[in-house]
Amino acid sequence: MKKTYLTIDGSLNRQVKNSKTTAQTLQRVLMKVVGIAYAKFKDICCHSFEGFSSGSKCANRFRSVNLRYLRERAASLQNSGQSLSQFYQFMPLQSEKWSPFAIILSQGHLPVVSVGIDAEGGHKAYVNAPGRTYADFVRSWGLSRGDQVTLVTVQKREGTYEVNYARIVLNPRNEDGSGAPMTTEIVNSDGEFPCSNWKNQLNFSSFEFDTDRFSFVLGRGGIVVAAGIIVSRKDRSGEWFRSNCQLVLNEAGFGSDLCSLAMAMDRSYAAYDIDLESEYYLNNAGTGGTGSTGDVTPSGGGGGVEPTQPSYATTARINGVSQSIAGGSVNATAPVTSVAVSGSNLGDVVFTAKVDGTGEAISPTSHDADGASFTGLSVAAGHSLTVYRGGAVWFTVTAQTADNGDGME
């Protein structure tokens, strides 16, 4: 009996004779990495996708979106002629050693709280502080009293990687959001954590607050190599909502443990007899819906049961004007205030943007199956906005003064 294999583009190939091809080996490595990642984060990822019931549906959602993210990154590198040696945080199939990639931990419509990692100052995770008080954080992050803020880190300790969580419940008893300084609301002057009557699960080995950020390390300490924050909210009907969360990485923290995807593939050619028909991975994974639209698999021309692949328009609306992005770069008159992309079946695709390709990632102000929009921007002349899909560069918009020409159609 011939086995069924999943190629790099997601199509099924039932006639594979040489199971040592690059695409097949790549797929095995990616599937193993995603499977191990779910096992490591199962405590939260079995219920972290808004609109999907806990358990198997959330598990399949996790595997689906993360495998798609990894395939898109690998395909983007290959299509641009770049080496897969740029693809980090992977281990070969024979190895049981694990290290994280930029894992998508949750999806939902709640406000995103960005987290960073100080690659030099002790390798600690941090959140930029919008002010000095508890109320400042609630207001600036778009949160509500009673929301839960779950901090997630992966820390390197004595040569191994540990997943750690901490959860802070925004005190619902304070009608004004509490004007107490953040330090006293979270950590009192004795270094102890108050609010024991609430559902906090405080797991800090260090918590430091200064004028513009608070830094933290969880669990038993160590070097933070990956971090993220998930916001959760329960409405009056008892339904839970989540925020989007994708781990940020501190590559400096991995040290000599870094293993490129190319190296993982080279070491994995001998392990070609893995059964890819297992129901444990991506079979029956829902691929539709964004946020609270529910666990819906869109029709793909096969009786409404085949998952459809995303397709992307070759134009984008920049400052409200349609421009071609087929070449990967485009000019627009400064300031660039809005960028809208479109296509079909885009609910699963993670879109982000960065000014000049650096700094903190900007999340879309709106995103559904038909596209995503970035509004409220202010990209000045001489600067650019890079738009990413699935973590890979899609196109770049360069802001120019009007007399330089804006290239608009």
Secondary structure: elements and pairs:
Blueprint lengths: L4 E2 L5 E2 L8 H24 L10 H24 L24 E3 L9 E2 L7 E4 L5 H7 L7 E10 L2 E10 L12 H5 L17 E6 L3 E6 L4 E12 L5 E3 L2 E2 L1 E2 L1 H4 L6 H6 L44 E8 L2 E4 L4 E5 L5 E6 L6 E5 L10 E3 L2 E4 L9 E6 L2 E9 L9
Parallel strand pairs: 16-22
Antiparallel strand pairs: 1-2, 3-12, 4-5, 5-9, 6-7, 6-10, 8-9, 10-11, 10-13, 14-15, 14-17, 17-20, 18-21, 19-20, 21-22
Helix pairs in contact: 1-2
Question: What do you see in this structure?
Answer:
With about 400 residues, this protein is α+β, with helices and mostly antiparallel strands. The chain has three domains: about 5-100 and about 260-290, no CATH class; about 105-255, no CATH class; about 310-405, Immunoglobulin-like, CATH 2.60.40. Helices cover about 15% and strands about 30% of the residues. The protein has six helices and 22 strands. Strands 6, 7, 10, 11 and 13 form a five-stranded antiparallel sheet that branches. A five-stranded antiparallel sheet has the order 15-14-17-20-19, with no helix packed on it. Strand 8 (about 205-210) and strand 9 form a beta hairpin. The longest helix has 24 residues, at about 20-45. The N and C termini lie far apart (about 55 Å). The relative contact order is 0.15. Mean pLDDT is about 75; it is low at about 1-20, about 190-195, about 270-305 and about 405-409.
